[in-house]
Amino acid sequence: MQSFVEALFRMPTDQAALRALLVDLQQRALSGRMPIILPEKHGGYQRIDGAPCHTWPEIFIQLSGSGTFTCDEEVLTVHPGEVMVMPPGTPHAEQLGALSKRSPELPQQLVMMCQQYRCVIMPVQAGRGGRPNAVSYYALQEPDHGMSTTQCIEALTQRWSHCDDHLRGPLMGALLANVLIHVDSLLQQDSGLSPEGEGRGDFVRRCRWLITGSLSDHRLSVAEIARRMGVSTDYCSHRYASLSGETLRHAMNRYRCRHAADLLRGSSLRIAAISWTCGYRDPAYFARIFRALYGCSPRAYRSQGAHV
Fold first, then answer.
1. Which of 60, 92, 171, 253 is the most exposed place for a label (fewest CB within 10 A)?
2. How large is the average pLDDT for residues 81-94?
3. Whole-number pLDDT of residue 7
4. What is the pTM of this model?
5. Which residue has the higher pLDDT, 199 or 157?
6. Are 38 and 85 contacting, i.e. CB atoms less than 8 angstroms apart?
7. 113-117 — which CB contacts under 8 Å span 24+ positions?
8. Domains of the chain with bracketed CATH
9. pLDDT digits (tens, 9 = 90+) for 212-235
């Protein structure tokens, strides 16, 4: 049985530490010391309860402990120094755990999530039941020209299945290093966002990043946001509304439907798949919420070329 070091990296606590970690990871990737794992079956946007799928790719770098991903019938585990690359449209449930019962290390990951026009970096650690909880957020604006983080990751995933075994390690390591170099360059150009403070703007921004980082998660609720914020549901709901002028529930629907509108404009996904991908279990309920916000049904929005 292969043994693993409990922790290879320290959780970054600020932007300088994050940049130092990215440089270390680049060097490890180029030297072939960061094994990469991809699900055998990916894409498809299957509807699986408890396993959200995103329209953007994600990278999970295990810092300490282990991360277990359930992708349909496939169960994959990453250990410290290993990387899980999750292609778009791949349903996955994730749980963080210790390598052993006596392990003193809190399971931790560095997650890179690509969204439209930005890359989000989230240091996460194990929460209740092994669910990943974000410690901080860095939202980085993608450049108007040149490669995006999504394109860098797609270059890796597209070559994965078309690469000879003896070339896969070095090539994938180089492509992963390219992703990390790109993200580091974004971090140099952007002050990022680390919503740890308790200022008025920080509270609202942190709630919004929790929403936008979990658009596909059907379990996301006002109570769940409050739990992740470390406050009571009533306090979270009232504070957000008083600071932002809208309810948390309205904010959740607004961000989810905005993402749905982008997909209706820019993809050929079925409306039922868009509903599921945007966090709505019931397409009819999604259609009602969308109509209330946009004045027409999702089908009409798409057929009219979004000129509504």
1. 171
2. 91
3. 55
4. 0.80
5. 157
6. yes
7. 113/54, 113/56, 113/58, 113/213, 114/56, 114/57, 114/58, 114/148, 114/149, 114/150, 114/153, 115/56, 115/212, 116/56, 116/259, 116/262, 117/141, 117/142
8. 15-189 (no CATH), 200-303 (1.10.10.60)
9. 878 888 888 999 899 888 899 999
